[in-house]
Amino acid sequence: MTLELLTVGRVSVDLYPEQIGVPLEEVRAFRKMLGGSPANVAVAAARLGRRTALVTKVGDDPFGRYVRRALEEFGVEASRVGTHPSLRTPLAFCEVFPPDRFPLLFYRAPRAPDLELEPGDIDLEAVASVPLFWTTGTGLSEEPSRSTTLEALERRGRRQVTVHDLDYRAAFWSRTEEAAGWNRRALAHATVAVGNEDEVAVVLGERLEPREAASALLELGVELAVVKLGGAGVLAATSSTSAAVPAVAVEVVNGLGAGDAFGGALCHGLLAGWPLERTLRFANAAGAIVASRLGCADEMPTLAEVEALCEA
After folding, report:
1. Quick one: pLDDT band at residue 301, thresholds 50, 70, 90?
2. Mean pLDDT confidence for 189-216
3. How far is CA 292 from CA 100, 218, 257, in A?
4. How far apart are CA 129 and CA 253, in angstroms?
5. Residues 261, 280: Cα–Cα separation, whole Å
6. What is the pLDDT of residues 113-144, one digit of tens each?
7. Domain 5-311 is found in CATH 3.90.550.10
C-alpha cells in the first residue's frame, strides 16, 4: 500500500461510560474503543478514503492485540505497531457531562509503551517520502519518544505536508514551560501547526486573540497555523491569507473526539489541495458529527456523511 498519511505517537484503549452525566464512580457499564489522538486521526482519515498508518507501541497483552485488530478493521495499516515486552497498553476513562465537560482519567503508569519509541521503530524512508506526516506534542513529553519524534521531523526536512499537533495534556508534563520549549523545537521542522486556544497559549507562553495567536505560530516557522476555537469555530492563516469558519451547530454528546475528527478531515483537505476555507468547513463538519456521538474512533464519519452536512 502506498501511504498518504503516517501518524506517530499516542495510542490507548478508551473506556467510555454508557451513562451520560454520571460521575465515574457511579458508572455501571463502559464501551471499549480505540483511542489516542494520532490513532484517531489515522482512523478519521482512513474513514474518508485515505491510506493511513500509525507508528506506536502497545503492551504484550489483550488490549494491545485489540489495538492492532481495531486499526486493521478501520483500514489503518497496523504493521508499524510495535510491542513492548513489559509495559501495559494504556487505558483512558472519561466522564461525559454535555455540552462542555469531559474529564479524562489516564492509566499510563509506570510508563506508556508509545513513549518508548526508538529511532529504529520508525521507517525514516517512509517518513521522508509520505505525502503527509503527523506528529504530536504528547510524543515530546518523555524520552526516548521525544528524540525519536524530533529525529523523524528533522529527517522529513520540512517537506509538504508536515503537521505538528500541539496535543497538550497537562498530566503528561511536569511544567508547561517544558511543553512550550519542546513543541517550539518541533514546529521549527513542521509546515502546519494545529492546536486549540489553550494548547496554543501553552506554546506561546501567553493567551492571544486568535488572529494574533495564528500570526505568532507562523513566526515560529510553520506555513499554516490552525487555531481551533471550540464553539466559535476555527481560524487558520498563512503568510498571505486567512480564513475563519463558524462552528456547525449540533447537540453535543461527547466533545472528546471532535478535534481528532477535525484532524483527519484536515489531512483529507490538505492532501486534496483544497482552498483553505473549504478545508476548514469540511474539517469543522467532521468534528461536529463526532461531537454529536458518544465515541471517537468508532464514530468517525464517512466522506458521504461529512459532505452531506457541509451541503446542509
Report:
1. very high
2. 98
3. 12, 32, 10
4. 39
5. 12
6. 999 999 999 999 999 999 999 999 999 999 99
7. no
Contacts of 291 (CB under 8 A, 6+ apart): 250, 252, 253, 254, 255, 257, 258, 261
Per this entry, what is the length of the chain? 312
Enter the C-alpha cell of residue 73: 478493521
HSE-up of residue 147 (Cα within 13 Å, Cβ side): 6
Give the pTM.
0.97
HEC secondary structure over 248-305: CCCCCCCHHHHHHHHHHHHHHHHHHCCCHHHHHHHHHHHHHHHHCCCCCHHHCCCHHH
Contact 88, 59 (CB under 8 A): yes
Helix 37-47 and helix 258-272, axial crossing angle in degrees, nearest 10: 50
**Would you say residue 1 has pLDDT above 80?**
no
- At 19, list the grid cell: 451513562
